[in-house]
Amino acid sequence: MSSMPSFRRVLLASAAVVASAPWLGVAASAQSRDPLPPVTVQAPDPAPRPAARPKPRTAASSGRTVRAGRRGAAPVQPVAGAASEPGSGAPASLTVPTTAQARQEIQRIPGGVALVPDTEFKNSPASTVKDALGWVPGVLIQQRWGPDGRISIRGSGLSRAYGNRGINPLMDGIPINTADGLFDLYEIDPTAYRYIEVYKGANGLRYGANSLGGAINFVMPTGRNAPEFEARIDGGSFGYLKSQVATGGVAGAADWYMTMSAQREDGYREHSKTDAERLNANVGYQFSPDAETRFYLNVSRWRAQIPGEVTKDQALNSPRAANPVWVQQDQQRNIDSVRVANKTTLRFGETSVDFGAFVLERHVMHPIYQWLDFHVHDYGGFTRATDDRFIGGFRNRLITGLNIQNGTIDINQYWNVGAAVKGPLAASYLWKSQNVSAYADNSFYLLPNVALVAGAQFLHAVRDQQDRFLANGDQSGRRVYNPFSPKIGVLWDVDPAWQVYGNISRSAEVPTYDVTTFASPASTDINAQTATTYEIGTRGRRPDLTWDVSLYRAEIRNELQCLTSPTTPGACTIRNADRTVHQGVEAGFGVAFLKSTFAQEDRFWFNVAYTYSDFRFDGDATWGNNQLPAVPAHYVRAEVLYKHASGFYAGPNVEWMPQAFFADNANTLTVDPYALLNFKLGYDDGTGWSGYIEGRNLLDKRYISTTIAVETATAASALFNPGMGRAVFGGLRYRM
């Protein structure tokens, strides 16, 4: 308990220092109203991109952003309307902002945010979400096997065994999670996106998100900013092979973009083969400079074996072995999905309106300890209006929106009698989810460089379960949730390249349907998780220096814990914890040194992304002030990278977890610290041919990458997924 008030005092003291700040001595200018480019630390772009060719992306249009490893770029100035797409001469899209426009928008938010352009992650295997977002402080991604893993922001979905929750994932601003809140990482193909937006916590209110983890928006290119043709091939250890081809173009008022990829790997562990094929496409039509519509098609197929969790001893001493029970049952996860969506943007002077609709169909064939066979049908719509004008001489920006996301899951569960063979029917349900949310977010500029931000979201959610297998009793049920989540904050542009912010917000999260929510009176009473979060921070840059630091404290009621049963591995039961606290620091820094060492304008960059997570029970009747399981207190990524103006880059990096963390509420079994040494080198001048070679875990360190959570663990508990051993990957890419 003693550490919690002290952390609050740190927040309050930091806020007081920021508020007084006589040492700043920086005069605010009219320019300071313009939002900053993001400075969240990421692996740096390998090279600047030329603008002389007709289609290639320039540094601005490619999403070159000022974060660790950037060369002191000038402040990004406002983009006027949708005049033209940089580097192409074509009118810019109204429905999909350019990277520069998105960079401006996200920096209007008084809280932890990040924008990651494709230049940050496409010169890598680009096979998992960790490849794309692994350098964002505060975003914890723990790989289970293949492309599957747990993603958590500020402790969201902390104890999830499989699947993810607590974050609102979007594609071009349109939901991609199921209506009850679950989502899988397999649908995310990093090679398909122009940039990725990360909104931590209630900072995701821009899209109506109000979960503890916030929102992540994956944004595709359009024909107005994509290469006419692009192809790549990647390969590496453990049978990894991926190919991708893409094309885009403009024909009068229409444009199109399409990318297809195929990915397979034998896997580091026994019984962990995966293969996936994905198609992502969009077609837009611009009726006028103020009206555009765009249609999206996303098709995915995934086939995967599941190696299963093992004991700590097995994970460290026989890391490539699978759980023999998983092998005997031939546990798998196989998913086919199709998503069709539309987004239309209209502009009326100082007001713009986005609206659209989507439908998603999934078929999941999932032999685990039972044989799960279910069909998902989700549909919904959205509208969002943005009004930016001066009122009485003061600038005011108002965003209002309405989201509807409904869906059904038709699920039959059979006994797995071995080797993924369906046995007798064990359960049959029809799950129905309804979600209607309304939100508003207003920024009022008290001064040209100081904005007071206030907003709120109201969510009406229904979870209905119809039990169609009554041999073990009727487990039908229905719950209605109506959480209200307000937010208030302040954003101060100290100068055109420096921001200070703070906010207080509330979040809410409704239980998902991945477990039987109405099996007993105890599970029927599962409540929505709510939290009040306090946050302060600063981001900015100076020549050859960038920084982004956020401090937060979330006081949570009814945290949703998914605790695995020791008698039924793979299954978990949702329970509400009483009071818990999530508090921490998200910090990224980058500095250039040894400039012009071997050639004019070359640089060595030192980049570091640090996440501190102090998550614990708060006076719990059973667990006292124990630490919450499944998350490290400290997580560090750091690199030294040499960059030559020609496009060559090379350097080592480390991934370091310096302190053990627990696998159970009782704090009896730990996951040991580890440090991984990696190295990469490559060449990319922005067009034509580029390539890379990357070595990971070069010292072949044996470590545990992730754990599932239980109440009390023992040395015999099979909870752990071993991390991948030494691996080398390489790839070639061509753009024209």
TrEMBL record:
<dbReference type="GO" id="GO:0009279">
    <property type="term" value="C:cell outer membrane"/>
</dbReference>
<dbReference type="GO" id="GO:0044718">
    <property type="term" value="P:siderophore transmembrane transport"/>
</dbReference>
<dbReference type="InterPro" id="IPR036942">
    <property type="entry name" value="Beta-barrel_TonB_sf"/>
</dbReference>
<feature type="signal peptide">
    <location>
        <begin position="1"/>
        <end position="32"/>
    </location>
</feature>
<keyword id="KW-0472">Membrane</keyword>
<dbReference type="Pfam" id="PF00593">
    <property type="entry name" value="TonB_dep_Rec_b-barrel"/>
</dbReference>
<dbReference type="GO" id="GO:0015344">
    <property type="term" value="F:siderophore uptake transmembrane transporter activity"/>
</dbReference>
<feature type="compositionally biased region" description="Low complexity">
    <location>
        <begin position="57"/>
        <end position="93"/>
    </location>
</feature>
<keyword id="KW-0675">Receptor</keyword>
<keyword id="KW-1134">Transmembrane beta strand</keyword>
<keyword id="KW-0813">Transport</keyword>
<comment type="similarity">
    <text>Belongs to the TonB-dependent receptor family.</text>
</comment>
<keyword id="KW-0798">TonB box</keyword>
<dbReference type="Pfam" id="PF07715">
    <property type="entry name" value="Plug"/>
</dbReference>
<keyword id="KW-0812">Transmembrane</keyword>
<feature type="region of interest" description="Disordered">
    <location>
        <begin position="29"/>
        <end position="98"/>
    </location>
</feature>
<dbReference type="InterPro" id="IPR000531">
    <property type="entry name" value="Beta-barrel_TonB"/>
</dbReference>
<dbReference type="InterPro" id="IPR039426">
    <property type="entry name" value="TonB-dep_rcpt-like"/>
</dbReference>
<protein>
    <submittedName>
        <fullName>TonB-dependent receptor</fullName>
    </submittedName>
</protein>
<dbReference type="InterPro" id="IPR012910">
    <property type="entry name" value="Plug_dom"/>
</dbReference>
<feature type="domain" description="TonB-dependent receptor plug">
    <location>
        <begin position="107"/>
        <end position="215"/>
    </location>
</feature>
<feature type="domain" description="TonB-dependent receptor-like beta-barrel">
    <location>
        <begin position="266"/>
        <end position="698"/>
    </location>
</feature>
<dbReference type="InterPro" id="IPR037066">
    <property type="entry name" value="Plug_dom_sf"/>
</dbReference>
<keyword id="KW-0998">Cell outer membrane</keyword>
<keyword id="KW-0732">Signal</keyword>
